[in-house]
Amino acid sequence: MADPQSAVDAEDESRGDGLDPRVREHTAGERQAGIPFIGAGPGDPGLLTLRGKELVDDADLVVHAGSLVSSELLEEHCAHAELVNSVGKDLEELVPLMRDAYEVGNSVVRLHSGDPAIYGAALEQMDALEHEGVPTYIVPGVTSAFAASATLRTQLTLNGVANHVAFTRPQGKTLEPEEDHISDFLEMGDVTTCIYLGTHAVAETMDRLLEAGHDPDTPVAVVYHASWPDEDVIEGTIETIGDRVEEAGYRASAMVLIGDAARKAGYERSYLYDGWASRGSDGDADADTGTEADD
Predict the structure, then answer these.
(1) What secondary structure does DSSP assign to 54-99, as a single string?
(2) Domain-wise residue ranges, the chain
(3) For residue 120, how many other CB atoms are within 10 A of its CB?
(4) In Å, what is the CA distance from 1 to each residue of 5, 103, 150, 212?
(5) Which pLDDT belongs to residue 287?
């Protein structure tokens, strides 16, 4: 096979300035030709989508993200298939493995945790496979921020509290300090900030926020292993959450939510259920869907 980086670069160059032509040929819910990159969800097998279940049930080879995908899901849906743990394997191993299996007629599935679109590193695998003549596509899944929100029985957006949501990660080995915008999101005031890949750095991140002058009483909730059997919730503030996470001993696999929405605090009633949305064509809402036509 071609060098993976060269393959990725070649695919990027071949796209030019336009979208992939298949964008207009398929919807996200369709079963397509090629290898699907499936979001397995945050952990609970029940949060795998129906399309994802259909595809893994029919798979001959499932390449999965190790312990990030629950063993229960693998046992329930993939026991009939050959299972390959992708942890510790690079593109030079994974791409030929999937390509060769696909080319001899096997049904191949690449199973990512959460949703492949969020910190999934899926596209580089897909581009390398496409360069080898193997079509690929994405089947979306439930990302851990949504599972954490459900666990907390709240919304990430709340009228009068949070109009925006930021998916981000803290500075570290793969993110330079100047690329860490967590403080900027908090400065906006009406943002629920969802921190991925930062369990090991909760205390350091909160210290930086305090040094930047943010309110130490700003609510923070940390949901460890959202939707897994050992799920745990730690509640605190910017000032206290670092110590509490360290006391719990968690170093990975937790979602950190910063903002008032985590506590369902102080939100205002929306217009949706007060009669405003049912005024029909004479009003500013869509009478058929019950949603706002213009903000």
Answers:
(1) HHHHT-SEEEE-GGGS-HHHHHHHSTTSEEEE-TT--HHHHHHHHH
(2) 4-142, 145-263
(3) 19
(4) 11, 14, 43, 49
(5) 45
In the 8-state DSSP scheme, what is residue 162?
Answer: B
- Angle ∠(121,126,130) on CA atoms, nearest 5: 160
- What band does 273 get if pLDDT is binned at 50, 70 and 90? confident
pLDDT of residue 201: 95
- 4-142 falls under which CATH superfamily? Tetrapyrrole methylase, N-terminal domain (3.40.1010.10)
- Please report, as a single letter, which amino acid is at residue 166: A
CATH H-level superfamily of 145-263? Tetrapyrrole methylase, C-terminal domain (3.30.950.10)
For residue 182, give both structure tokens: 């967590």
CA distance 35 to 137: 6
Name the pTM for this structure: 0.86
Band of pLDDT at residue 24, cut at 50, 70 and 90: confident
Write the DSSP assignment of 221-260 as a string of letters. EEEETTTSTT-EEEEEETTTHHHHHHHHT--SSEEEEESG
CA–CA separation, 254 vs 248, rounded Å?
Answer: 12
pLDDT tens across 204-233, in order?
999 999 999 999 999 999 999 999 999 999
C-beta of residue 128 within 8 angstroms of C-beta of residue 8: yes
Q: How confident is the model at residue 244, as a pLDDT?
A: 98
Select from 53, 45, 93 the least CA-distant residue to 69: 45
